[in-house]
Amino acid sequence: MDTVNQNNDIDIAGLIKHYLKHWYLFVISIIACGVLAYGYTKIFKPVYLIKANLLIKQNDGDSPGSMQSAILKNFAFGG
Q1: Which is more confidently placed, 19 or 28?
Q2: Which of 6, 14, 50, 61 has its CA 20 to 30 A from that of 38?
């Protein structure tokens, strides 16, 4: 049992120094991820499914709305 080291201390300053030696790898990975994300957004455009219902109230007689209804009947609004 004497040969097993039970020291659970962590040298945080040593870890930080070790990772700061390789700071350029962090910068390169951030730039590479940014370029990949930009390229992905430019290549793959989002596709959305849009559905809508249009309700047109018809007015009886010669009211001002009847002319608008006649104009809207000439347009095709989906199925």
Answers
A1: 28
A2: 50
